[in-house]
Amino acid sequence: MIFSDFYITRDFKIEILPTDYMNQVSDVLNKGDRLITVFRPIDGDFAVKSFKLSFIEELKQRFEVDTKNIQELLFQTVTAFGVSLNNPPADYIPPDKIELVVVYIKENVATIVKVGDISVKDKSSGKFTEMFEGKSNPLGPNADTQIMLKVVDLIS
Question: What percentage of residues in the chain have a pLDDT greater than 90?
């Protein structure tokens, strides 16, 4: 597979594939913030289409109702999408799954949520290494998934 590097800073990157859906928007929840989403389809693109159409709106709605910390908001939003993939409104349950990375940046602090195998790397001692230990399954029907979360200071 051929990966491309999407640099968030010169010392922080996400490795993306040509089939990944990537989006970056500013001023999402607060003035001056940034939200970067990378959605990777597994066995079909139904889940990715669902996420990319409504993820930001869902996050905004949750923020308007309860402005708790961003870690909780991102975790709850990803969890809600995982539940909806397991309980679609029709009788048909699409077999596809989704891997994702969501990065919310405000005031040089990045909150990162990761599900699946998308590489998120930072530079340490001149070499890029994976930021997350362990592995999680993609979100999707009957998937036992672990949502990984990390908060990093982008200035250090």
Answer: 50
